[in-house]
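batch_manifest entry 22 of 60
target: Lysosomal cobalamin transport escort protein LMBD1
source organism: Loxodonta africana
requested by: lab member K.T.
priority: normal
notes from requester: please return tokens only, no post-processing; we will run our own comparison against the previous entry in this batch. if the run fails, retry once and flag.
--- input ---
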Amino acid sequence: AAAGAASAELVIGWCIFGLLLLAILAFCWIYVRKYQSQRESEVVSTITAIFSLAIALITSALLPVDIFLVSYMKNQNGTFKDWANANVSRQIEDTVLYGYYTLYSVILFCVFFWIPFVYFYYEEKDDDDTGKCTQIKTALKYTLGFALICALLLLVGAFVPLSVPNNKNSTEWEKVKFLFEELGSSHGLAALSFSISSLTLIGMLAAITYTAYGMSALPLNLIKGTRSAAYERLENTEDIEEVEQHIQTIKSKSKDGRPLSARDKRALKQFEERLRTLKKRERHLEFIENSWWTKFCGALRPLKIIWGIFFILVALLFVISLFLSNLDKALHSAGIDSGFIIFGTNLSNPLNMLLPVLQTVFPLDYILITIIIMYFIFTSMAGIRNIGIWFFWIRLYKIRRGRTRPQALLFLCMILLLIVLHTSYMIYSLAPQYVMYGSQNYLLESNTTYSDPKGNSTISVPKRCDADAPEDQCTVTRTYLFLHKFWFFSAAYYFGNWAFLGVFLIGLIVSCCKGKKSVIEGVDEDDSDISDDEPSVYS
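--- output ---
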């Protein structure tokens, strides 16, 4: 009966997870359709963007599922549940591990093959003289470089030994044989882990650039709001009149037939360009001022302020916890050679103290972890939307509602895929023991004894699972297996956390100093994604 009840609960859990997948797909479709350009929308790139974004969100949702499953197998008193025997536990662990294998393999496929192929295919499509076969051949040629990089990472990860042969006098053939045996014993885990860790390193750089800034910009933008469309339109009208006066002044110099000087011609051209932009802004401002959506957003203004305050509180919880966790590693870890890994905590941080309290009321701790992960994703989206996509100092694309080019959406999804990979390590940095063991307890024999009719007995008390727990008493999450295969990646992530904190503080200062955003921010001289005949509401 107990086993049947447990099975029913697991079925309900998987049903909820299935509904979550449907919700993720619906959100991805709405998000991509919201930002893609209506003039340049293309079926293949749209499907690729939706699929990649869904994979990113599903992968991020697997962490709380992994933690829940290892915790669900044990009672709070430290004993395993009746149905959770060794075989069932192993099956659950393997299911989660295969889930990670599948999702991480799909991410490798998207990052190194599918997204580059679609991107280069669409780039070739802009040339009207090329046929379909030529487009495919050219896209495959450029994609081959990404595939070679992926193959190289897998090979390096597969044959970098995590341990050394015991016999130092072994022959070269024996050493090679040892590498293949180690690869077979790990079932390819090291190869995949190395490739994913390499991408996670790039995701760390993306998180430092976009997520850290988005965490400060998103809440403050919600709190400050945007400028009034009516006030902006009044200012724009004054600017139009001023520019028209300058144009008339320059043209009046040639009324008697004299040609304009080169300097006056350049100035006239600049003023005419400026006038076209201002008139474009006038049309957009007029549309937005009379839009029902603007009035609806104005009614929701108090709700936006509440959300902004909530988001800044979550950001402060995240940043303070990350700072204390990194400080703990700096003071109590074994140093860079161990990847700054510590087991347990010596300096408590707010999140690490809050999670054990929430564990007493199911499922508050999982809700909090899910909120933090989703907040991490949405602030990353906000950071990319505010900063745009850059290659060093060159801006490649802007992310604008209803005007984002297909190539920009592909870049957006690739960046989010990389950031999601880094999310698991960020959560581990905040609460290492929780990410490793969830809410598991194990039975620890106490030194206290008591007398009963059969003789003296030892009391066993439940204790929270940690690194000192017996291996057969506590199940480690599958996430942890992918995080710490290679110490040098862990060391890089440690220094990346300090950089993340620095960029967040800089972004917070910049966001506080900046004024309110324009209601049509993005309609300017160099914005090729904005057309005259496609007004849209920006908020």
